[in-house]
Design brief:
This protein is of the alpha/beta class. The protein has 15 helices and 20 strands. β17 and β18 form a beta hairpin. It is globular, with a radius of gyration of 22 Å. The two termini are 23 Å apart. Bound molecules: flavin-adenine dinucleotide.
Length: 493
C-alpha cells in the first residue's frame, strides 16, 4: 500500500540506518526524496568496509528483536527491506552472549524465560533481587513489543523510576557486585556507563536482545544496498560524495541545502540523519537562539571505541556461535570491557575476529588534525599497540590463534571521519540520567521544515535509530502513516 500525499520535495542528509529509514518512509508516502551522503558509498556505520577480501563490520554485530512479529521485524517489514536481508539466529545452542568475569562465566540465553532461569541458577542467594529485576525487564519487553511509540498511543515515563541510574537501582535492591556486573553488560551496547544509564534504556536494550538476537549473514554492506535498492524502487535519488554544509533559509523556514561542492538543492523539508552537533552546524549563524546552539554543543558524547579486525584461519579456530564479553571484576563501570566476535566471513577457510573496547577521544586527540590515511607513524604505532592488546585479550578466551592476520584497527578518529561523529563517539550523544531533559527533543529544531533523526534522537542501535526516525516523521507525514502502520500491525487491543 503506497499512499501518495504530496508531490513535495524532501532532502535527507546522511545515509546510515537513520537516513535510509527516513528516506524510505518519506518516499513511501509520495515525497520526492534526494538522499545526500558525504562518503563515496551510502550506508554509514551499517556498511562496514573490506580489507584484503574480508568484510569488516563497523556498526552491526548483532541485532535484537528481529523475530517474526517483533519490533525490528515490523519496522523492516514496514520499510519493505525484509525480504533481502539474510539472518542467522543467535542462541541456537542456548547462548546468545557469553560473559567472562575472571573465573566466572555467565551465559545470556535467548528468551526472557531462559534468562530468568539462568540468572536464578547462577545467583541462588539473590532470588528476591532477581524477581525485582525481572519485573522491570519483562515490563520493558512488553512495552517494546507493543511499539506504542509508533501506534499512536502516548508513551508514558515515570521520571523518578525510569530515569534512575541502573547501577544505583541494583545497589538499592542489594544485588551483589557480580550480579550488578552481569546485568549491566548491556549498557555497553548503548554507550552509557551503568552509573549514568537510565533504567528504561538499560531494560529496553536488554529486553530487545532477549526477545531474540540475530547476526546478518553476509555483510552490513549488503544491508546498506538493500536499503538503497528499496529507496530507489520508491523513486528516490541518492547522491554520494556530497557533504551538506549549510541550510538555505527564508523566514526561519528551510528552503534547501548547500553542499561543499557548491551544489544546491531546493526543498521545503530537510531531514538531517546525522549527529545533532553536525545538524546544528548546518543552521546559518544568527538563525537560531544562541542558547539553543550552546545547549546542543554542550551535550556530552558517548565514548569512542577502538576496534581490531583480524582474519583467523579455520585451522586455528572455528566460528563462535555467540558473542563474548570479557570483563574485569574490579571494574564496575565496565570501561575496559571488551566485546569479541568470531564469525564466518565470505573468505573460504577463514573467519573474522572483531574485538571492540572503549577508547576515549583524548587518547587519540594528538592526531586529530591530520587527515585520515595520512596520519603519522606514531599514530600507526599506537594502533599496532592496540591491535596487540586486543588480540591478547581475545587469546585469553579463544586460545592461541597463532596465525591471526591483523587486517585493521579503527579508532575514535576513524569514527569521527567516517560518520562525522564529534569526538569519535560510537553511539552519538549520551542518553544519560544527567542529560534526560536535554536529550528529550533532539529531533526538533527551531527551523521550520528541518528535522533531526539518527542514533542520538531516541536510542542508539539499528532498532533505536530506525524507530526514532519513523517516530520523528509521523507528525511530518500526517495521519496516513499512522493509518498504514495500524493497518499492518494493530494496535491489538
Ligand atoms: C563500533 C560500533 C559497533 C556497533 N554495533 C552495533 C550492533 O551490533 N548492533 C546495533 O544495533 N547497533 C550497533 N552499533 C550502533 C549502530 O551502528 C548505530 O546506532 C547506527 O548505525 C547509527 O545510524 P545513524 O544513521 O544514526 O548514523 P550513521 O550510520 O553514522 O550515518 C550518518 C551518515 O551521515 C553522513 N553524514 C554526516 N554528515 C554529513 C553531511 N554533512 N553531509 C552528508 N552526509 C553526512 C555520514 O557520512 C554517515 O554516512 C554500533 C556502533 C558502533 C560505532
Amino acid at each position: 500500500m503506497v499512499t501518495q500525499i504530496p508531490d513535495q520535495k524532501a532532502i535527507v542528509i546522511g545515509s546510515g540506518i537513520g537516513g535510509m529509514t527516513a528516506a524510505i518512509t518519506l518516499a513511501k508516502f509520495g515525497y520526492r526524496v534526494t538522499l545526500a551522503e558525504k562518503n563515496p558509498l551510502a550506508g554509514g556505520l551499517m556498511r562496514g568496509y573490506t580489507r584484503r577480501g574480508f568484510d569488516c563490520e563497523v556498526g552491526i554485530h548483532y541485532l535484537g528483536a528481529l523475530g517474526p512479529g517483533q519490533p525490528l521485524h515490523r519496522i523492516f517489514e514496514f520499510l519493505g527491506i525484509l525480504p533481502g536481508i539474510s539472518l542467522e539466529p543467535l542462541g541456537a545452542g542456548g547462548v546468545t552472549d557469553r560473559y567472562y568475569l575472571d573465573d566466572f562465566v555467565f551465559d545470556l540465553p535467548a528468551g526472557l524465560e531462559a534468562f530468568a532461569e539462568h540468572l536464578r541458577a547462577a545467583f541462588p542467594s539473590e532470588q528476591k533481587q532477581i524477581t525485582e529485576v525481572l519485573e522491570i525487564v519483562n515490563l520493558s519487553a512488553a512495552r517494546l513489543s507493543s511499539l506504542d511509540v509508533l501506534s499512536g498511543r502516548s508513551m508514558t515515563f515515570d521520571l523518578k523510576k525510569d530515569f534512575h541510574p541502573v547501577n544505583g537501582f541494583l545497589k538499592e535492591i542489594n544485588c551483589s557486585s557480580r550480579l550488578r556486573q552481569v546485568l549491566s553488560v548491556i549498557t555497553a551496547s548503548v554507550g552509557v556507563p551503568p552509573d549514568k544509564c537510565p533504567l528504561y534504556l538499560w531494560s529496553t536494550a536488554l529486553a530487545s536482545y532477549l526477545l531474540s538476537s540475530w547476526r546478518i549473514s553476509g555483510s552490513g554492506a549488503r544491508m546498506a544496498e538493500i536499503c538503497a535498492e528499496r529507496f530507489r524502487e520508491l523513486g528516490g535519488t541518492i547522491i554520494t560524495g556530497e557533504e551538506a554544509v549549510k541550510l538555505k533559509l527564508a523566514d526561519k523556514s528551510v528552503k534547501g541545502v548547500t553542499f561543499k561542492s557548491g551544489r544546491e538543492l531546493q526543498a521545503p523539508l530537510v531531514v538531517a540523519a546525522v549527529h545533532p552537533k553536525i545538524a546544528l552546524a548546518l543552521i546559518p549563524e544568527g538563525s537560531c537562539l544562541p542558547e539553543y546552539r550552546r545547549r546542543i554543543q554542550a551535550l556530552e558524547e558517548t565514548p569512542g571505541v577502538v576496534c581490531l579486525q583480524a582474519g583467523i584461519p579455520e585451522s586455528d579456530h572455528g566460528p563462535v556461535p555467540y558473542n563474548i564479553y570479557n570483563l574485569r571484576v574490579e571494574n564496575e563501570d565496565l570501561s575496559d570491557a571488551s566485546f569479541i566476535q568470531l564469525k564466518r566471513t565470505g573468505k573460504p577457510d577463514w573467519n573474522i575476529l572483531t574485538v571492540i573496547r572503549r577508547s576515549d577521544f583524548q587518547q587519540w586527540k594528538q592526531w586529530e588534525n591530520t587527515f585520515s590515511g595520512h596520519r603519522d607513524g606514531e599514530y600507526e604505532a599506537a594502533k599496532n599497540n592496540e591491535a596487540r592488546q586486543l588480540l591478547e585479550e581475545s587469546r585469553k578466551i579463544l586460545g592461541p590463534c597463532e596465525n591471526a592476520r591483523v587486517l585493521d584497527v579503527f579508532t575514535p578518529l576513524t569514527l569521527r571521519d567516517l560518520a562525522s561523529s564529534p569526538e569519535g563517539s560510537a553511539y552519538g550523544i549520551m542518553r544519560s540520567v544527567k542529560q534526560k531533559f536535554r536529550t528529550a527533543a533532539l529531533h526538533r529544531t527551531p527551523i521550520k521544515g528541518f528535522h533531526v533523526v539518527g542514533q542520538s534522537v531516541m536510542a542508539p542501535g539499528i532498532l533505536g535509530t530506525s524507530l526514532g526516525a519513523i517516530r520523528t516523521l509521523m507528525p511530518v507525514i500526517g495521519p496516513e502513516i499512522l493509518d498504514q502502520w495500524r493497518a499492518l500491525f494493530g494496535p491489538k487491543e
